[in-house]
Design a protein that fits this description.
Layout: E1 2-11, E2 16-24, E3 27-33, H1 43-46, E4 49-52, E5 57-60, E6 62-67, E7 72-73, E8 76-77, H2 82-91, E9 94-104, H3 109-120, E10 127-135, H4 139-150, E11 155-159, H5 170-183, E12 186-190, H6 194-206, H7 214-217, H8 221-238, E13 242-244, H9 250-261, E14 266-270, H10 272-276, H11 279-283, H12 306-316, E15 321-322, H13 355-364, H14 370-384, E16 402-412, E17 431-441, E18 444-448, E19 451-452
Parallel strand pairs: 1-4, 1-5, 6-9, 9-10, 10-11, 11-12, 12-13, 13-14, 14-15
Antiparallel strand pairs: 1-2, 2-3, 5-16, 7-8, 16-17, 17-18, 18-19
Length: 471
């Protein structure tokens, strides 16, 4: 089917220009200056469908490289399935996710990956790929890293947190990074000093400090900054590229920025919750209400200026990507597992549906440019994780993943209207300037004026190449 998206402002990672986009089947085949008849025909009359984007932005489909659908955590599972989570993502203008397959200590890496393929296969409404969590670094898992790169799994996540669950010590991290340096893969790091945090948590509980706000207070910025510095040093020692996930503390990003200033291949990701939500306003809600905002790394103090500094680092480029760390849990029965003990609250916030809208507010407020919005949400994540030029930019030959975004729209975020499988919203009542009008996934309209027109199973597994975002 041929589709012409006509009359919009096509936004890329560098510039925005009035262009028409011609799609044939699943691919973009041409970008034409508005009104260009150089193809020798009136495209508006020959295209099988014309989408009028007059007065709107035409942007690449969003690429969210940090989601956790159906993740087992804290005695329960993330509440979004691959079906519900990818439909919600599509509603928010995201057309590609990269989720995390899980291997725990004592399990084979390949078995963990196979389990995630089984969860996702035939259930996704948009395209998807996998990172691999290495929960037990040993000779077998290091060998598996090499094998998985050949299967299109080209990034591996390690944890400096969660002793007894996913934790890797410095020696294990060193060995994994040596393997990554050899095979060209990207190491993703959850950078918090987990053994120190466990001591602080035990001490807080012994004092009777059980409310959700103590989740943040027992994971202070020093534990994030110290672990970030240690991860950077190990990466530099081994020559492995490093991507630090869900950064929330300004001091940790400052450490990363110093290393980047030296030309090292280290990159940082943050998430909308760290740009908009805070210890004071959200985690410190009366009673147990703050449990809705328990996530790791934790929400930080707005009084200490973390949020403003993260926005600044998005402008300077020291934070390269905005993902969601989408790991939703319902308040009833799931978050409530931590009643009386904040350490038992399942960690996670749902946001896969709202990332594009929330970051667009940075454009509205003058914090980032229109092109930087696209760069952070679409192009750089695709380049960082081996999906570009197929994903992340509107180019001839790329997949026809497009979002027609209406800057004149107004969106109110609420549990009553969102499509994530959650009984609350972390952003309840937020009024958003702008909104998604139409979403195409590989040339097929999957969202039109709020209606889902796609199908479960449309999404394809993406075999990824190596990162294209190294110095």
């Amino acid at each position: 089917m041929t589709v012409l998206v006509r009359g919009g402002l096509v936004v890329g990672p560098v510039s925005a220009q009035p262009m028409d986009v011609l799609i044939d089947g699943e691919k973009v085949v041409a970008l034409l200056a508005a009104g260009d008849a150089s193809l020798g025909a009136d495209l508006a009359s020959t295209a099988e469908r014309v989408i009028d984007a007059t007065g709107k932005y035409v942007v690449p489909g969003g690429v969210d490289v940090h989601t956790h659908m159906e993740l087992p955590f804290g005695g329960t599972f993330a509440s979004d399935t691959f079906e519900t989570g990818t439909i919600a993502a599509a509603h928010g203008g995201t057309t590609t996710i990269v989720d995390f397959a899980v291997q725990r200590a004592g399990e084979r890496v390949q078995d963990g990956l196979a389990a995630w393929h089984e969860k996702a296969r035939g259930n996704c409404a948009i395209d998807y790929g996998f990172h691999q969590i290495i929960g037990g670094v040993d000779d077998e898992s290091l060998k598996a890293m090499d094998e998985l790169v050949d299967e299109g799994i080209t990034s591996f996540k390690l944890f400096m947190a969660y002793p007894g669950v996913f934790f890797s010590d410095d020696g294990q991290i060193l060995r994994a990074m040596q393997s990554a340096a050899r095979n060209g893969s990207m190491v993703m790091m959850h950078a918090e000093n987990g053994t120190a945090i466990d001591v602080l948590v035990a001490q807080a509980l012994a004092r009777g400090e059980t409310a959700p706000r103590y989740h943040s207070l027992t994971r202070p910025w020093e534990t994030e900054e110290e672990a970030t510095h240690r991860a950077i040093m190990l990466a530099h020692l081994t020559g492995a590229p490093l991507y630090v996930v869900h950064m929330s503390a300004k001091q940790a990003v400052s450490t990363l920025a110093q290393a980047r200033g030296e030309g090292w291949n280290v990159f940082g990701e943050t998430c909308p919750q760290y740009l908009y939500l805070s210890l004071e306003e959200h985690l410190s809600q009366p009673g147990f209400e703050g449990a809705k905002w328990v996530c790791s790394t934790p929400l930080r103090s707005s009084a200490e200026g973390h949020q403003d500094e993260l926005w600044r680092y998005l402008r300077t480029g020291d934070l390269s990507v905005v993902s969601t760390d989408h790991c939703p849990f319902c308040f009833k029965e799931q978050k409530e597992l931590g009643l009386g003990d904040f350490s038992k609250i399942p960690n996670g916030i749902g946001g896969v549906e709202h990332r594009m809208d929330l970051l667009y507010q940075g454009v509205v407020d003058g914090r980032i440019s229109l092109s930087r919005w696209v760069e952070l949400c679409c192009t750089t994540p695709a380049r960082m994780f081996g999906l570009h030029p197929r994903k992340g930019e509107i180019l001839p030959g790329a997949d026809a993943d497009l979002v027609v975004y209406d800057p004149a729209a107004r969106t109110r975020i609420s549990v009553d209207t969102h499509h994530m499988n959650m009984d609350h919203s972390a952003y309840e009542g937020y009024e958003i300037a702008g909104g998604v009008d139409t979403v195409l996934s590989r040339g097929r309209v999957v969202i039109e004026r709020g209606a889902f027109l796609g199908t479960k199973g449309h999404g394809q597994f993406l075999r990824r190449g190596l990162s294209q975002h190294l110095v």
